[in-house]
Design goal:
Blueprint lengths: L22 E7 L6 H12 L3 H14 L1 E8 H17 L5 E6 L1
Antiparallel strand pairs: 1-2, 1-3
Helix pairs in contact: 1-2
Bound molecules: L-tyrosinamide.
Keywords: Hydrolase, Protease
Function: Involved in the modulation of the specificity of the ClpAP-mediated ATP-dependent protein degradation.
Organism: Pleomorphomonas diazotrophica
Length: 102
Amino acid sequence: GNGSDSGTGIASKVLTKTKRPSMYRVLILNDDYTPMEFVVHILERFFNKGREEATQIMLHVHHHGVGECGVYTYEVAETKVTQVMDFARRHQHPLQCVMEKK
Ligand code: TYC
C-alpha cells in the first residue's frame, strides 16, 4: 500500500500487510433423535445446499457422526452456528452445530 505526503512535502512509501482471514469449518453432529428431513432442511436453509447435496451430507453425518456444512470466516461461521442452534432448539431437536478453525 502507499503512504502519501500529508503536509511535510516528504513523500513516503508504506508497505501494507494484507492477510487472508482464518477460515472456520461449520460442522453438524449426529444424534439419535433429530429427524433426517429436519437436518436436510437446515442444510438447504442455512448453508444454501440443494436437496441432493443436503441429503448426502445428512447421510454422511448419520453414518460417520460428524460432517461439514461449509467453510466461512469467523463471523459468518459464528452466525451460522447460532442460527442452526436457535432453529433446532425452537423445534425441540437436540441437533448440535459447532465451528472449528481449519
Ligand atoms: N441420526 C438421526 C436419525 O436417525 C438423523 C441425523 C442426521 C441427526 C444428521 C443429526 O446431524 C444429524 N433420525
